[in-house]
């Protein structure tokens, strides 16, 4: 879904990327700053119950994930940069869901906190499945709940919950947990077919 919007966002943010590149800002700087901002704001705003403000601030920092890719293409990004970006993406995701789980525990919503924890674990397995497949020379670029979609859902439902919309957080988190499990299954299926074909040669 977000891949459809990516070209438009890239065109929108390219002037900023060129400005930063001219002033010596590197993709790795943007990656690190975006991750630090995402984790810090997640662990500050969400546990304090400030879901609306938190979601807006986190969204600002999450957009850095797109900006660092634009900068990398403009400045011939490095292999280290690609590794750093993927690794810190996992850290940022953990920060967002951890902040939300802490909020739910402190608010006494223990069952829903379990749903948030399942989203955190499911997201990590989704990402690992793709990375492991690529490490074995295969691909696993499939699934209904990739990273962009997971972040979009959690930020939107947290924002709406902060505005007082009933049940939206529960529906969003449990739906995301199920979607993550489905995505893991989709990736395992795709890799299984590739592995069988490879081993049959």
Automatic annotation (TrEMBL):
InterPro entries: CDP-OH_P_trans, CDP-OH_PTrfase_TM_dom, CDP_ALCOHOL_P_TRANSF_CS, PIP_synthase_PgsA1. Its cofactor is Mg(2+). It is found in: Cell membrane. Mg(2+) 1 binds at residues 65, 68, 85. A CDP-1,2-diacyl-sn-glycerol binds at residues 28-31, 69, 73, 78. It is an enzyme of class 2 (transferase). Mg(2+) 2 binds at residues 65, 85, 89. This is Phosphatidylinositol phosphate synthase. It comes from Herbidospora solisilvae. The lineage of its organism: Bacteria, Bacillati, Actinomycetota, Actinomycetes, Streptosporangiales.
């Amino acid at each position: 879904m977000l891949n459809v919007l990516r070209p438009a966002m890239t065109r929108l943010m390219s002037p900023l990327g060129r400005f930063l590149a001219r002033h010596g800002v590197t993709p790795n700087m943007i990656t690190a700053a975006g991750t630090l901002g995402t984790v810090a704001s997640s662990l500050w705003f969400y546990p304090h119950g400030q879901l609306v403000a938190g979601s807006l601030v986190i969204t600002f920092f999450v957009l850095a994930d797109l900006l660092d890719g634009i900068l990398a293409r403009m400045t011939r990004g490095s292999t280290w940069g690609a590794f750093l970006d993927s690794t810190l993406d996992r850290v940022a995701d953990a920060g967002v869901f951890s902040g939300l789980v802490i909020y739910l525990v402190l608010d006494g919503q223990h069952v829903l906190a379990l749903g948030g924890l399942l989203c955190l674990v499911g997201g990590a397995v989704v990402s690992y499945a793709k990375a492991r497949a690529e490490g074995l020379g295969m691909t696993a670029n499939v699934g209904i709940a990739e990273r962009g979609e997971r972040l979009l859902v959690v930020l939107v439902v947290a924002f709406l919950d902060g505005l007082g919309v009933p049940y939206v957080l529960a529906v969003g988190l449990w739906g995301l947990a199920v979607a993550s499990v489905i995505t893991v299954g989709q990736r395992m299926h795709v890799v299984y077919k590739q592995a069988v074909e490879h081993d049959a040669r």
